[in-house]
């Protein structure tokens, strides 16, 4: 797979990503945060994502266990990517930020059960 670029709406933040499954890994999540955000995300291993412009323009949002790290452009507010709680060795990258792509072309995008997250199970 060759590297792809992803960017926020205003272009202040640009990522270079190399997703092993390309766009085929796209998923949506129904956790309390993702269902409000609404963006499908593709899987990118930590070593295959690089912020090539605008690292200083990213803002971080965390809640709950503070394991997941959700990044947004400070200027336009677009969610670009997040470090996953389910696997901190992976990022989820907003499918809508990938240059030349349109999330509509990948429908139906499967859903992940974030409401019943494995990290929240007791026992």
What is the structural class? mainly beta
Q: Mind describing the biggest β-sheet?
A: 5 strands, antiparallel
CATH-defined fold name: Metal Binding Protein, Guanine Nucleotide Exchange Factor, Chain A
Tell me the Rg in angstroms.
Answer: 14 Å
The ordered string of helix (H) and strand (E) elements is EEEHEEEEEEE
Q: How many individual helices?
A: 1
Q: What global shape is seen?
A: globular
Number of strands: 10
Which keywords apply here?
single chain, 123 residues, mainly beta, Metal Binding Protein, Guanine Nucleotide Exchange Factor, Chain A, 10 strands, globular
Please, could you describe this protein's structure?
With 123 residues, this protein is mainly beta. The chain has a single domain (4-115), classed as Metal Binding Protein, Guanine Nucleotide Exchange Factor, Chain A. It has one helix at residues 34-37, and strands spanning 4-7, 14-17, 28-29, 41-45, 49-53, 58-61, 69-73, 79-83, 90-94, 111-112. The strands form three sheets. Strands 4-9-8-7-6 form a five-stranded antiparallel sheet, with no helix packed on it. A hairpin with a 6-residue loop joins strand 1 (4-7) and strand 2 (14-17). The longest helix is centred in the N-terminal third of the chain and has 4 residues, at 34-37.
How would the blueprint of this fold be written?
Layout: E1 4-7, E2 14-17, E3 28-29, H1 34-37, E4 41-45, E5 49-53, E6 58-61, E7 69-73, E8 79-83, E9 90-94, E10 111-112
Parallel strand pairs: 3-10
Antiparallel strand pairs: 1-2, 2-5, 4-9, 6-7, 7-8, 8-9
Would you kindly provide a brief summary of this structure?
This protein is mainly beta. It is built from 1 helix and 10 strands, in the order βββαβββββββ.
